[in-house]
Amino acid sequence: MRLGGYIALVLGLACACRGWAGEKADEHTITYKSGISYDSNYFADTNRLSAISLRAGFGLTGKITLEGAELRYSLEQEEVRLPRYRFANEHNTIASLGLTRRFSEKLEWALELRGTRSDAGDIFLHLPEENIGYRQLDHKLEASSQLGILALGGKNKLTASLASLMKGEARFRPAYFIPTRLEANEALLSLKAEHERPLAGGEAGITIAYDRILVPEGQREKYERFPAQTLRGSLAYGYRFSNRLAVLAEAGLTSISGDEISDKVKRTRPYLRAEAELKATDSIAFGVGFSQDYALFDPDDPIAEFHRRWQFVVKSRLAEKVGLDLALQQVHKDWIYYNYDTSERRLVATLSFDTGKNSKLEVEFNRLLHDERDTDLAYDGSSVTSRFSGTF
User: Of 126, 177, 319, 348, which sits most exposed with the smallest number of CB within 10 A?
Assistant: First the structure.
């Protein structure tokens, strides 16, 4: 089904269910947003091309209560304009439909469908007198199903999901080259089993997860994108010491396999996740986190990457309607196919103002440092963004 048909299905089902639900309809909300940004390195590469971008978006979200079930839907359209680089304009459409069905106090089932249509552009070649860009129409379809069961002294979840990314041909601007496919299509199959139960005043859990990346056989060698699979098992424990401090720790093993993976690659590695949140006062809170795991879906490497992520967050309330958030993030990426690694450091500072009537104004500063083993490929960039958003 094309995305247009999927959108029609979402709206049709939502309207039909609204009529069926009658007075039971819970909520229907219209969202809007607009913004302007200046970025010193808009395309995030060594060309370091600066640009001003204009963004606007509208959306419709809703939740409908049916007898024994709940239906959720959303539809969002976003437009991005770059006056200086029109080949990079964006037209993005996202539609989703979710259904939750409670069969009993101990059994619940959920289904979610999501479709994304992205018509966007990027830089292909930067010349002293001219920039050659390209546009690409991509589609992403996602489906997931989850079964929740209260048994064995705790909560149990079985989840299956499939995400399919279909890449379009690159259409060059100016049209010096014929339309050409640059990337392979791919799909990610995920299966997960989780069990959580109370333990020593906190919550303990065990997770087994299997992920498999699928690539059409005829596109693997041509576009250097190869299938692989990962298997993870982990134990987790979370504890809330008071209303102000909560911690979570998870550890286990994660392993990758695939025909194109070199014997020199360390296939089994520790899986780690640690998080802590501290509410120091009523107006300031801190968060810190670390995680490491394989990333299979749409990486820069032809197979996969192993990511190590650090994050430190400060959320503060400067006044009744003024907030300031700071985030420091770092990710280190080990490439699996190539003997290579990259890293990124990012600082994000967001000042927000509650402007009333379910709306807010945000001013954000974003600083990116991208490092590579080959220093000639390293780059940096800064952006300043003003956003206005709300609902009615």
Answer: 319
